[in-house]
Amino acid sequence: MSEEGPRQAEDWVSQLQLRAAKQLEETQRMQAELEKLSITSTNSDKSVTVSIDASGIMTDLKLTEAVKNSSAADLAAEILAMQHKAQNQLGKAASQVVKDSVGLETATGEAVMNGYRKRFSKKAMEAREEARKKGDKS
């Protein structure tokens, strides 16, 4: 009986294990890079600066004295606009991290980017804003 069959099976299993280990390493590297992301967005007159973390949550808000001339509604709208701009930039930065690690076309890459699109697409942000406005009218 030939030992060729079992040896081929062992080689196949070994190659499969190596690919799985490489994918795990790439995924862990991607996750670490995504967790480091931080984006800052400033409006055109530099009166509002918003920073967000890798989850899109605001971590810092800086206002200059120029905001004293704004109404509360205008200031709130500008803060939200800068947060949305930063979140849009976060999606782009995340896309680059995914592309450079696991690849955008992989199942992992597609799942990660779908998560960002669900949270930070223009349509998702508009829906949240509309829901917020409806809640303010109650």
Describe this structure in words.
InterPro entries: YbaB-like_sf, YbaB/EbfC. Strands 1-2-3 form a 3-stranded antiparallel β-sheet, with helices on one face. The chain has a single domain, classed as Nucleoid-associated protein YbaB-like domain (Ybab, Chain: A), CATH 3.30.1310.10. Strand 1 and strand 2 form a beta hairpin. 67% of the residues lie in helices and 11% in strands. 14% of the residues are buried. The longest helix is centred in the N-terminal third of the chain and has 33 residues. Helix 2 runs antiparallel to helix 3 and helix 3 packs parallel to helix 4. It is mainly alpha-helical. The protein is built from 4 helices and 3 strands; from the N terminus they run H-E-E-E-H-H-H. It starts with a helix and ends with a helix.
Summarize the structure.
With 138 residues, the protein is mainly alpha-helical. Helices cover 67% and strands 11% of the residues. The chain has one domain: Ybab, Chain: A (2-Layer Sandwich).
| Computed Rg | 23 Å
Outline type: elongated
* % residues in beta strands: 5-15%
The overall pLDDT, averaged over residues, is 89
Strand count: 3
GO molecular function, one term: DNA binding
Pfam families: YbaB_DNA_bd
InterPro entries: YbaB-like_sf, YbaB/EbfC
Protein name: YbaB/EbfC DNA-binding family protein
Write the layout of secondary structure elements.
Layout: H1 4-36, E1 39-42, E2 48-52, E3 58-63, H2 72-100, H3 107-120, H4 122-137
Antiparallel strand pairs: 1-2, 2-3
